[in-house]
């Protein structure tokens, strides 16, 4: 079972992104915190300037498109269905 998510946890470079979403990257003095998108399974990167001093904090979760229930099921039958009868607009036969 996965460890429970702790939204207040700080992630460090090299940690694995636990869940896709928007994270704030907090640097050591040289830059204001800013938001980044991280995808589950990726590693949080080192900062070019403050190296391993950067930390990442979960802001809000954004499910990856492949993790969305409605977007991962079998192709909807409606796509295979023929377009509506072209008779629309014509009188009854
Ligand atoms: Zn930095």
Primary descriptors:
binds zinc ion, mainly beta, 93 residues, 9% helix, elongated, 2 helices
Question: Can you characterise this structure?
Answer:
- There is one protein chain.
- With 93 residues, this protein is mainly beta.
- It has a domain of 59 residues.
- It has two helices and four strands.
- A four-stranded antiparallel sheet has the order 1-4-2-3, with no helix packed on it.
- A hairpin with a 7-residue loop joins strand 2 and strand 3.
- The longest helix has 4 residues.
- It is elongated, with a radius of gyration of 23 Å.
- The structure holds zinc ion.
- Zinc ion binds next to loops.
Mean pLDDT: 84
How much strand content do the residues show?
15-25%
Q: How many strands appear in the DSSP assignment? A: 4
* Element-level helix/strand string: EEEEHH
* Associated small molecules: zinc ion
Which quaternary structure do these chains form?
single chain
Tell me, briefly, the overall form: elongated
Count of DSSP H/I helices: 2
Q: Main beta sheet, described?
A: 4 strands, antiparallel
Distance between the termini: 62 Å
Structural class: mainly beta
Question: What Rg do the Cα atoms give?
Answer: 23 Å
Proportion in helices: under 10%
Strand order of the largest sheet: 1-4-2-3
Low-confidence stretches: none
Question: What would a concise description of this structure say?
Answer:
The protein has 93 residues and is mostly beta strands. It has helices at 69-72, 77-80; strands spanning 10-11, 21-26, 34-38, 55-61.
Write the layout of secondary structure elements.
Layout: E1 10-11, E2 21-26, E3 34-38, E4 55-61, H1 69-72, H2 77-80
Antiparallel strand pairs: 1-4, 2-3, 2-4
The protein binds zinc ion (ZN).
Residues 27, 30-31, 47, 49-50, 54 line the site of zinc ion.
């Amino acid at each position: 079972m996965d460890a429970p998510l702790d939204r207040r946890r700080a992630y460090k470079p090299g940690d694995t992104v636990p869940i896709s979403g928007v994270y704030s990257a907090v640097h050591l003095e040289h830059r204001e915190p800013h938001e980044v998108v991280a995808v589950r399974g990726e590693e949080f990167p080192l900062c070019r300037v403050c190296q391993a001093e950067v930390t990442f904090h979960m802001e809000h979760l954004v499910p990856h498109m492949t993790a969305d229930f409605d977007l991962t099921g079998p192709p909807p039958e409606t796509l295979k269905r023929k377009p509506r009868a072209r008779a629309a607009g014509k009188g009854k036969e």
